[in-house]
Design brief:
The protein has 167 residues and is an all-beta fold. Strand 9 and strand 10 form a beta hairpin. Strands 1-8-3-6 form a four-stranded antiparallel β-sheet, with no helix packed on it. The protein is globular. 0% of the residues lie in helices and 46% in strands. The relative contact order is 0.22. The chain has a domain of 97 residues: Nucleoplasmin core domain (Jelly Rolls, Sandwich).
């Protein structure tokens, strides 16, 4: 389960926060709605991240740039982070805080839909026996056994001798 998170930063605003549980930031968006932007030109914003060790421009949003940028930033408990926006635009940062499972499972097992993943890395299968023979058809990388069908422009594999292997 995850709890959503949102931060709104005005131009020139600095937001410093000490993370109290893991924080995952996923998107930075520039405010571009006509009812919110009072300038005739497209706003521009530089989202800057400052930590105890460095300062980095995470993204540039606006003129000749995308209005939103995917992020994949994870901050751990106790980290102090500072965000600031340079430029003329308002920036929204969104993400989530992962919430640990409250339930406890026997032997450290986590249900995974028909299987049980054990903390040791072994898998136990419930229900059907997974030890039966499986057939695998090899994938051909050559174009010689592929032809374009005149119907709907689909690619189809031409029949060839049965080259499936049994395990």
């Amino acid at each position: 389960m995850e709890l959503p998170l949102g931060i709104t930063l005005q131009p020139g605003e600095v937001c410093t926060q000490t993370v109290n549980s893991q924080l995952h930031l996923t998107l930075a968006s520039l405010e571009c709605r006509p009812s919110k932007v009072f300038e005739r030109t497209t706003p521009v914003a530089f989202l800057v991240l400052k930590t105890t060790s460095c300062e980095n421009v995470l993204c540039t949003l606006g003129r000749n740039q995308p209005f939103q940028q995917s992020l994949d930033l994870v901050f751990q408990d106790g980290e102090e982070v500072t965000f600031k926006v340079e430029g003329t635009g308002v920036v929204y940062i969104t993400g989530y805080t992962p919430v640990p499972l409250q339930e406890s499972f026997d032997n450290g097992a986590i249900p995974t839909g028909g299987r049980t993943a054990i903390a040791s890395g072994e898998l136990e299968y419930e229900g059907e026996d997974m030890s039966h023979d499986m057939e695998i058809a090899p994938v051909s990388s050559s174009a010689e056994n592929v032809q374009r069908s005149s119907k709907r422009g689909r690619l189809e594999q031409t029949p060839e001798k049965d080259s499936r292997r049994r395990l």
